[in-house]
Amino acid sequence: MCVALLFLCLPPLQFDTAIQQYWQAAMEHGYFRYNLTKPASRVLPGPMKFIALHNVDRGKLRRPPEAFTHIQQPFDWDKFHFGKVKHREVLMKLLPHIRWIQSETHEDHEYFNDVLINDSPIEFAHVLLVPHRGMTDGSPQIVSEYGLRLAVDLLLLSSHRNWFVVFNSLCAFASVNHQHYQAMYSPSPLPVQAWETVLVCNSLYRLSDTYHSFAFVVSWRGNGDQFALDILRVLKVLVANGIAHNLVLVRGESVSSILYRNMLVPRALIFPRKHFVGKKQQSSEFNVAALELAGMLVMYGDDAEFESMTEAKAKPHFADSQLNKSVLDGLMQEVVAEFNSTAEEHPLPSS
To answer: Mapped to the 3 state alphabet, what secondary structure does 171-221 carry?
Structure first.
């Protein structure tokens, strides 16, 4: 399925066409662990508008996840990492500044940023972005400035409102300790795209208290570099405090009543949460990772469990991941101080 190597700067519509065609070709060639037919999905009645998505095969056939004990475990070459995947799983290569190139059967360059199939897909066109996949020093599952900027580009490349990008830290249901971001199309708009926010300061907001989980929300200020830098201000505090977290990048309703009114603009939601320590087990209902916090509940159980899921049954799952109020208050103070700082240096190192 590899095609000619072309250095192109193509409009978003062509990116959507390409990623869908390449992904579908990989499915037809049998590169996945299972053949993904369109998973059943339904919007649960209630104000949260959760999307329940039924994917039994992922629960049974995916690669067994690793066990983690803290969010900054060193990269381990003896464990599974994305340098071990076959070249046929590379769909395209992402370059900075919202550019991509098509894949080809050539020797990989260590500085390419690969967009891979997720061989155990949740939904259509489920892919992984792995910055500098071939570098020899290894990059653990911690957001870097360079990696996040690419993830923002990956969001912006698409013209589809249901395309989104997520990151799970270690101890927040990441499965592999190698920096990577997931992207896919949601079967319907993610609930988090429209959830209400409360202004904190500058471009920093938080989710309204009416929702199931606390989240910092970073608003779009007109360019990807500033957007990524503002997100990193939050992540700097969480990493420094050893706090597990999930990140969601979506196009959503503007959080500002003045700027970008009635427009879908990028927003980032960062969910600090309690550590999940050990090896991830697939719940028969759902685990609380980035997708679920964004409102898409990936369910692995039988048809009866899927059909009987309600908003009332879903909400208690989120309570176990929530930090207590005193911890959240302390994090808020540190994040606000970071946003009010006049320091110009980037809060996380490039890699």
So the answer is: CCCCCCCCCCEEEEECCCCCHHHCCCEEEEECCEEEECCCCCCCCEEEECC
